[in-house]
Design brief:
Layout lengths: L1 H10 L4 E7 L2 E15 L10 E9 L10 E4 L5 E10 L3 E8 L4
Antiparallel strand pairs: 1-2, 1-4, 2-3, 3-6, 4-5, 5-6
Length: 102
């Protein structure tokens, strides 16, 4: 079901074609990239959002690992997987950071 959704999202430019790179091996994949996600925590007395970028990967395409790099084909942007945020049987979401220094 998620694979069908990703394919539909890609058809309307919501999902991106990408390359997943880990330990020298590149694997084509489809990703959802959310930029400047705001995260609030319930423990904060005065909630201040923390901004970060988040990527969703399909487990049918790749097995995400911390430190792997995802290269977005259309933009050439390279993103390093920093921290797994959530996942289920078919997808995982990761916090990412630019893999290349500015």
């Amino acid at each position: 079901m998620d694979a069908l959704a990703f394919k539909s999202f890609q058809g309307v430019s919501v999902a991106d074609s990408a390359r997943y790179i880990f330990e020298g091996t590149e694997t084509p994949c489809t990703v959802l990239l959310d930029e400047d996600v705001q995260q609030f925590t319930d423990d904060d007395l005065a909630p201040i959002p923390v901004l970060f970028d988040r990527i969703t990967l399909q487990l049918s395409e790749v097995s995400p690992r911390k430190g792997a790099v995802v290269c977005i084909v259309g933009s050439g942007r390279e993103l390093k997987l920093i921290k797994q945020l959530r996942g289920d049987a078919s997808t995982q979401q990761w916090e990412v950071a630019d893999a290349k220094s500015p």
